[in-house]
Amino acid sequence: MKYEEKLSRLRMIRTRNIGPVTFSILINRYGSAINAIDAIPELTKRSGVKATVTSIAEAEAEMEKAAKLSAQIIVKGEDLYPKILLNYDDAPGCLTMRGHPHLIDSTSVAMVGSRNASANAVPFAETLARELTDRGITVVSGLARGIDAACHRGSLEGGTIAVMAGGINEIYPKENARLYKAIAEQGLIITEMPFGMQPTSRLFPIRNRLIASVSLGTVVVEASLRSGSLITARDANERGREVMAIPGNPVDPRSAGCNSLIRDGANLVQNADDIVALLRSPELSARQPELPLSTKANPTDENPKEIAKALEIIAAKLNFEPTEVDELIRQCHLSASVVNIALLELELAGVVERTFGNRVSKVYKP
């Protein structure tokens, strides 16, 4: 990929209101990020909300900061971009990686669990992670305290990937600074967030989505009913991946999430052999999410009156619950091309957002 195109892709994904799905749609539609950036002012004209694309200077500055930390930014479309993520329509537009990038394309499993882990769960998780790497499995987790940290420690020598909620330079929690340094040297650290972004509560579900996406399955070691680990498990299930859980004491609330997952159909696993058997099952390798249709129609073919009509209908029909775009097209009684260009305009204006599975919803603004 030429430098100018890579820089344009980074500028696009760092632009407000351009998320991963919109990023890919724009590139599909206009053939390149360079062309898409040129088209954005026209796309936002009807909404009256001017989209300010991230500048060349800002994008180059981020690349320089990453390089100084011995990290690299990989945009979607480059050879080093993780192949497993290409299965998903909400694959990040770019990733910042620090460490050994080859690990991202290895056979991997996510291991997640409670931050406030029990005394028995921590050594169990560490041992289980080590046994998985002994069997050639890379362990993915979120660098949080408790179960996540234990999983990274156990898999450090055999292969571990830490997915961060903030920028590549924002270690959270600070107590894991030494572990972060060890993973950067022996494993791999990745994030889709900009350099310097502080990890906040709204970013952790995005991180959880990425943990589930780069793994063939997710193991929940210990989790309460309100744990973020259950979000990771749900994401894995939506993406056609195996969901596994370690059963726990029924009177310990820290095990209630795992026991609930098993009750609802997750695989009960007790050791590394159980997990490896599920990851290498032929049923899993054949299970892939259905990607949405790309929109490659010539943008000059659309009728402005039809787009205006689509904008009106979409505004009336959408709410905060995600709706499939195909269903929206049917209800609008307009062409897919017209509806998609209207959706692009609304996304760039910050009115709607796309989510996994070719769905769209209104943006909630409290």
Question: How would you describe this protein?
Answer:
- This protein is of the alpha/beta class.
- It has three domains: about 5-70, no CATH class; about 100-285, Rossmann fold (3-Layer(aba) Sandwich), CATH 3.40.50; about 300-360, Winged helix-like DNA-binding domain superfamily/Winged helix DNA-binding domain (Arc Repressor Mutant, subunit A).
- Helix content is about 40%, strand content about 15%.
- It contains 15 helices and twelve strands.
- The protein has helices spanning about 5-15, 20-30, 35-45, 55-70, 120-135, 145-155, 175-185, 205-215, 230-240, 255-265, 270-280, 280-285, 305-315, 325-330, 335-350, and strands at about 70-75, 95-100, 110, 140, 160-165, 190, 215-220, 240-245, 265-270, 325, 350-355, 360.
- Strands 1-2-6-5-4-3-7-8-9 form a nine-stranded mixed sheet, sandwiched between helices.
- α1 crosses α4 (about 55-70), α2 (about 20-30) packs across α3 (about 35-45) and α13 packs across α15.
- It is globular.
- Residues about 290-300 have low confidence and may be disordered.
